[in-house]
S-formylglutathione hydrolase (Vagococcus allomyrinae), 548 residues
Amino acid sequence: MELIKCNKVFDGEQRKYRHYSDTLKSEMTFSLYLPASEEPLPLVWWLSGLTCNDDNFSQKGGFQKYAAELGLAVVMPDTSPRGESVADSQDWDLGQGAGFYLDATEEPWRENYQMASYILGELSQIVKSLIPDFSGKEAVMGHSMGGHGALVLGLKAEERFSSISAFAPILTPSDVPWGQKAFRHYLGQDEKKWQEWDATALLSQTEKAPAILVSQGDQDEFLTEQLVSTKFLTVSENQPEVRYELQSGYDHSYYFIATFIEEHLKFHYQHLTN
Amino acid sequence: MELIKCNKVFDGEQRKYRHYSDTLKSEMTFSLYLPASEEPLPLVWWLSGLTCNDDNFSQKGGFQKYAAELGLAVVMPDTSPRGESVADSQDWDLGQGAGFYLDATEEPWRENYQMASYILGELSQIVKSLIPDFSGKEAVMGHSMGGHGALVLGLKAEERFSSISAFAPILTPSDVPWGQKAFRHYLGQDEKKWQEWDATALLSQTEKAPAILVSQGDQDEFLTEQLVSTKFLTVSENQPEVRYELQSGYDHSYYFIATFIEEHLKFHYQHLTN
């Protein structure tokens, strides 16, 4: 593993690493923010959206100020396996940059597209070894495809994450074009198997949901087709820990994220230090 | 003039415009942040560095939170004229993306490279017409080449700007490779003419300097060759309004800017509302 970049920001270090992942059979990069705090650090996962890599949030998210103030380590994985030997498609919403944070079962994807196992397993071990004094507590958050990822991984590994949050997430991937396309290719035609990676389906099977915060801009250009909330809101009606906030005038961009990242990190902090 | 993008951020609007500049004889873009405040708005100019355009600061500067809180409009011009009919070079530090905020006198540059006149004249008029209730007060700031630009334009139009600030500026362009190359091409061989566009030379001719704040990271990779401060510090010794702050561990990146932008905007706010 190699540290390829390190920038001081808000007294802490924004680091970027390169490593070979055995799980993904691919060279990967990831970014990690370590605040200067000498207290034990909880770890927050940030999962990015379609076409992104680990740089988008570190450069445009404006989160470091709050991570520094609250004393949170934040890790940003890439959004898929990468490289010439890794399966890909011509489309920006399938293949490299579009891993959907699941473990693929179908050809030609299953050899490399094991993002859920990578994040919950191999990368977790690496990242925890890089935090000088890890508090043992974790939270997960993300944007769009990464909001789907945060909800799904957070609900699947519920014992592990104190809280989950998402900006403009794909809430019901089984019902919308982005999710259906990804699931058909990565998981196959059997739609029953899709439910395992669908946040709304997982939430409907949960008796007592963990603390979840969802922020959604009402001027988001993908809201009505890809980020539909109807089923999710129904399923979460009797879940007192689930909060869905519609923000007036905001779109799908990182400007939206930058505006509400303080609220999200404070939400996680509260649960991580409880 | 055309509004080509508008994103809500921290309750305000991050806008991007395209227009044809008569001064530059070139299609130009610029960005403008307007906070939601209903008070009269002062205007802060941000001048970016080499290779940048008007997007870098708007996406990576993390300034909108403070501009919103303080009630400041912020305008971000591009760093040079643009387009196929505009003179350029193969080098990233000369030509398009490297206008140096001056008015060129030499061929082939003088036809388009009139950035000082564009910013102080044509663009000022346009921007002021876009601010619903302009307070009449202005400040100027920038990074690297844009820090040089902020100091030079701020000192040349001293009656106009309440305060000037710069991150990692080229303080003595006449003495360092970036500045010497640009000045030789844009202004010609006569080094006496360079003094008109050299912040340290201008400051040495000023009896009572305006309020100036300079922030410089001590791990900046360009510090010892391009951002040399010796002469500037000597010249500003008897200038009580000039502050030069060396920040330990910070480099030349936008992470440095994001960390100290709150301090800079509060510095300007104090002078803009005095």
Q: What stands out?
A: Chain A is about 30% helix and 25% strand. The CA atoms of residues 87 and 242 of chain A lie 37 Å apart. The two ends of chain A are 34 Å apart (CA to CA).
